[in-house]
Amino acid sequence: MNTELNFTKRTLDNLPNPLKRTRFRDSGGSGSVAGLGLDVSPTGKKTFRYEKKVNGKNIKVTLGKYPDITVEQARNLAKEQAQKIADGVNPNEEKRKQRDHINFDALFEIYTATLKLDVQAKLRRPRSLELSNTLYSLHVAPVIGKNSVIDFTRQDAKTFLNGLLAKYGYSRHNHALTLLKSMYNRAELEVNPFKDIKKIDEALHRRTRTLSGEELERLLDSLNYEDQIYRDFVLVLLFTGQRKSNVISMQWNQINFETKTWTIPSENTKNKKLHAVPLSLPVVELLTERKNKANNRESFVFPSHRSSTGHISDKGSKGGFWRRIIERADLYDSQNKANNFRMHDLRRTLATNIVNQGGSIQAISKLLGHSNISITSDVYAHLAIDNVRTELESTTLGMLGENKALNKVIDLAKIKSDILSLSEYDRQELASFIQSLSA
User: Fold this and answer.
1) Which of 105, 277, 382, 409 has its CB 3.0 to 4.6 Å from that of 145, i.e. a possible disulfide?
2) pTM for the full model?
3) At 277, phi and psi to the nearest 5?
4) Where is the Tyr recombinase domain (predicted)?
5) Closest Cα partner for 342 from 329, 355, 357, 353?
6) Which phi and psi angles does 228 have, rounded to 5°?
């Protein structure tokens, strides 16, 4: 394999994945820079590095990943490193000194800068950047934002995460752990105190709340007292099984009335894949009615002129439409928030009803847009097993019922035993009753 080539976007995009880690060198082009290389792993990961030999010793500087940075950017960075080395500065030593004084706030700036590039390249959703900013500013920065990264130990990491766990629960703990690991990885720090810390198994704490038949009736009755837009929103949420964020931002250009499908763009889905949702007849009728009444200039199915997003929103707090709905339906517990029925529980309610009516785990997984069927199985497999058990019992009893001779022997023995246990008076009464039937 020729490892010397002129770096261009087309050339790098078409590089085959090698069997082992391979370094390609920028050569032969009018803009090629000596010492600029691209390391390509068997998985296809591509990393720009600049290499220069000084006094018999190689100095290798990581510049960034392709396509996060372009060929032109990599060449400019390589020239900058070449100039530093020519001035007697070792870029790696300089970077190491900077890391010795970096704190978590600075680390988060590096993280957001690289994450923005991923968003621009549509490798991550804009929502990911928004959630990271919220999580860091509310729960990380106030506690460890000014702490030196170099002095932060694994024990410090565990203490911080345990504090989140005790105060906010496993979900906040796991999200913060993921964020902090990514912050270290994106800054390419050699030591990551969060690296070997495991997430808390969500299966041990997973919420299983669904609506019973009687509770569903109360919820639907409560919706009759809401404005049409909120009533329709909750019904679409219930009858599609999709996430609140997707339903609340549903747009008309995503709806195909001919095929009765709703296509959620990949940038709006959790697994970053385009998701086609089948629409049942009640949902199609509801959307058709909304479409007929909608302003042609409105892009959102559930628009709001008071919201900065252009669509309705609700945090579930006092004064919000969801709080009103569940309070009227007696699904709100002011003493224990864990007992409150949540919007996401509607998604689980639909899936549970589908399984209970004989639907397959595979169908549920596809509808809910789970990235892996094992996620669906963890939550709903026991319901499917209950269905199988019911069918098995019915089949087994049917098989036994086909053996009429066996049933006859069993029945006669029981009748004889019952008669012998009767008193003399009761036997005479039974005999009189039988005679009356034949009369």
Assistant:
1) 105
2) 0.52
3) -110, 125
4) 206-393
5) 329
6) -55, -40
| Amino acid sitting at position 184 | Y
pLDDT digits (tens, 9 = 90+) for 71-83: 999 999 999 989 9
What are residue 259's phi and psi, to 5 degrees? Answer: -90, -5
In this structure, what token pair is assigned to residue 174? 């796991």
Residue entry with tokens 């439409």: 321
Return the CATH class of domain 104-204: mainly alpha
Domain 4-100: CATH class, spelled out: alpha beta
The structural domains of the chain, with segments of one domain joined by +, span 4-100, 104-204, 213-380, 404-438
- The two tokens of residue 185 are 């990885």
Distance CA 107, CA 101 (A): 11
Asked whether this chain's domains 104-204 and 213-380 adopt the same fold, the reply is no
What gap in Å lies between CA 371 and CA 354, rounded to an integer? 19
What CATH number belongs to 213-380?
Answer: 1.10.443.10
Task: Report pLDDT digits (tens) over 79-130.
Answer: 998 998 888 888 777 666 665 568 999 999 999 999 998 888 888 888 889 9
